[in-house]
Amino acid sequence: MARAMGARLALGLLWLVHWLPLRAQVAIGGGLGALLHRLASPRRRIALRNVELCMPELDAAERAQLVREHFHWLGRSIVERGLLWYAPAQHLRGLIHVEGDIGLAERSEAPVMWLVPHFLALDVAAAAVLLFQARPGATIYQTQSSPVFDAAIRRGRLRFGHAELFSRSEGARPLMRAIRDRRLCFFNLPDMDFGARDAAFVPFFGVQAATLLAPSRMAKALNMVVQPVLAHMLPGTQGYRVRFLEPWRDFPSADPLADAARMNLWIEAQVRADPAQYLWVHKRFKTRPPGEPSLY
Predict the structure, then answer these.
(1) By the 8 A CB rule, do 247 and 230 touch?
(2) Percent of all residues in the chain with a pLDDT value above 90, rounded to a whole number
(3) What does pLDDT average to over the chain?
(4) How many other CB atoms are found less than 10 A from the CB of residue 25?
(5) In this model, does residue 142 exceed pLDDT 90?
(6) DSSP label of 255
(7) Are 46 and 296 in contact (CB under 8 A)?
(8) Which pLDDT belongs to residue 11?
């Protein structure tokens, strides 16, 4: 009961704050990020360890500064989630600056896989595909432990229509059937550690990381076009930028492992271009090859 009340209070605060001018939301988000950096020590330690593993060229002071910046953006992403869940569509269209070929999915005879790495504004990318193009889309959804938050997230992500959520616990078959039968596009988040199942250990910043082979296998099985998408929060009140890049050529190949390595190398390059907004608080290297000790 207390947990549900806390969730409702947090959602109520998000709803109230979304009415404020964006400048105020940015300030509140930055303050929340500073507070989380100070109080959420387990997540801070995970972020520092990830940065140490991925960017060993940085010294301790540089790593600490990068993680402080990361928590600033993390706080903003939490507070500004209220905009994505509650603000009118027209208001969001004014905040989201779309670059590149977002209309590819509408023109393509084959379904499109949007390949979206875990930058903190990835939910903005999801909103963009619903607000700026009409092709139906789908994504895999991780059920939340709090029923209140779970319902709120589902409402927020589905409120603009022509989208479907598939539970990760159901496996890939229902999603693949929907893509094949209803020509859905797939909003794919490929760079989290979901364990060794259906994954291979592939270098990510030179560290062996459990990497899903599904992007390659699914794209090949369903003859999908793979289009990378990048989303970033912009400084101050400038809003958000979502870039729809050129679709990858020769992807998928006949080798899912080589495709996974290519994907990780591409994500590395994008992270180096904007390291503070990557999701460092996730245990990307939690699953280890047999016999290897934990990196955390």
Answers:
(1) no
(2) 80
(3) 94
(4) 19
(5) no
(6) -
(7) yes
(8) 92
Residue from 157, 74, 115, 78 nearest 243 by CA: 115
pLDDT band at residue 163 using 50, 70 and 90 as cut-offs: confident
Task: Report the distance separating Cα 168 and Cα 244, nearest Å.
Answer: 25
- Lateral strand order in the sheet of 163-167: 96-100, 240-244, 225-233, 112-115, 185-188, 137-141, 163-167
Q: Rounded CA gap, 270 and 157, in Å?
A: 25
pLDDT tens-place string over residues 28-84: 999 999 999 999 999 999 999 999 999 999 999 999 999 999 999 999 999 999 999
Q: Which residues contact 252 (CB under 8 A, 6 or more apart)?
A: 215, 216, 217, 219, 220, 226, 259
Tokens 């060229």 appear where?
57
CA distance 24 to 31: 11
**What are the structural domain ranges in the chain?**
2-277
CA count, 13 A, side-chain hemisphere, 151: 6
Q: What's the average model confidence in pLDDT over 275-279?
A: 98
All residues at 6 or more sequence positions from 31 whose CB lies less than 8 Å from its CB, including other chains: 75
Phi, psi of 233 (to 5 degrees): -80, 140
CA-to-CA dists, residue 167 to 129, 154, 172, angstroms:
20, 11, 9
Our measurement of the distance from residue 19's CA atom to the centroid of its chain's CA atoms, rounded to an integer in Å, reads 25
DSSP 3-state assignment of 253? Answer: coil
